[in-house]
Design a protein that fits this description.
Two copies of one chain form a homodimer.
Chain A: H1 10-30, H2 38-49, H3 55-61, H4 66-78, E1 82-86, E2 94-98, H5 100-120, H6 126-147
Antiparallel strand pairs in A: 1-2
Chain A binds a DNA duplex through helix 1 and helix 4.
DNA sequence: CAAATATAATTGATATATCAATTAAAAATA
DNA sequence: TATTTTTAATTGATATATCAATTATATTTG
């Protein structure tokens, strides 16, 4: 009875879980702010905490590649959440500045974002959360070392 | 020291882990068969085990929505992995048949797919895998019940 | 049976993911 | 310093995700 899912592995549950979490989180966020995605929220939060980050650094923080982050930030600039200014000392980079609208949006959404996380983890003890993180990290490292060689 | 990741939750590790797994799996699969994606492989496997499944049933099995599965199968039909025939008794549905090329591809890829999974879970005991699955399922159910209401 | 409702699949619009190629600028090195 | 190599960001191509609207067909119900 352990493996009833199609491919017989926990990796299926992993896939399904993150998908449901994303759906749930997006639904809650959309109900407060209509023109923002979960990923765009994360970019705002990262930049809020680390105003000096380049696109590349933001990308690494949320596991996106450079191409994805370019497009995500393009959209955020269009929607006036962020502005791009050329970096003073390294002209390959940008300074990314959160706009007033961006700041207001963060304030509006932070409670929701935090609630999404606690809701997702409801019923798990502190120990279980730590354990989950450890087990996931093992899998993560396996995959990383595997495809980096 | 528990949470060093940007948003301070295990959900980040979850996101990162599934992304690395997908990358690793795609890389290994691409090295054997060049014109197929991980998701397309899954469709082949599902149909192989359940030849009578409709698109909708395949979709549910791998957590895709109808729109996604329509497009995935479109591509697979174009690449001659699958053929669509109208269902005899319910003309809203299709019978999806794996082609000869599809069957050969499955045979070629199954060892790789299985190796990907065991590699990803290397170093985890049976108990740990069961535990991981249980913890993930708790999160999954939290998210589902949350956004289904 | 006819009308209303439900279901399977498709399509359009928009966002993200991935890979490869490109550009511009910075850093390293001969 | 001139040349080579790296790095940051962009762009193009293709695949997938999500939502909403639509089409065609089945099923239910009045």
């Amino acid at each position: 009875m352990k493996n009833t899912n199609p491919t017989g592995t926990v990796l299926y549950t992993l896939e399904q879980t993150i998908k449901e979490y994303r759906k749930m989180a997006q639904k809650k966020i959309s109900s407060i702010v209509h023109d923002i995605t979960v990923d765009q929220c994360l970019v705002l939060i990262i930049l809020h905490k680390n105003p000096q980050y380049s696109q590349k650094e933001v990308a690494e923080m949320i596991f996106k590649d450079n191409a994805s982050i370019t497009r995500i930030i393009d959209l955020m600039v269009k929607k006036d959440y962020i502005s791009r200014k050329i970096h003073e000392t390294d002209r390959r980079k940008f300074n990314l500045e959160i706009t007033q609208k961006g700041i207001e949006t963060i304030a509006l959404l932070i409670p929701t974002i935090q609630k999404n996380r606690t809701d997702a983890l409801a019923g798990l003890s502190e120990n279980e959360i730590v354990l989950l993180d450890q087990l996931l990290t093992k899998v993560l490292i396996n995959c990383k070392t595997d495809h980096e060689k």
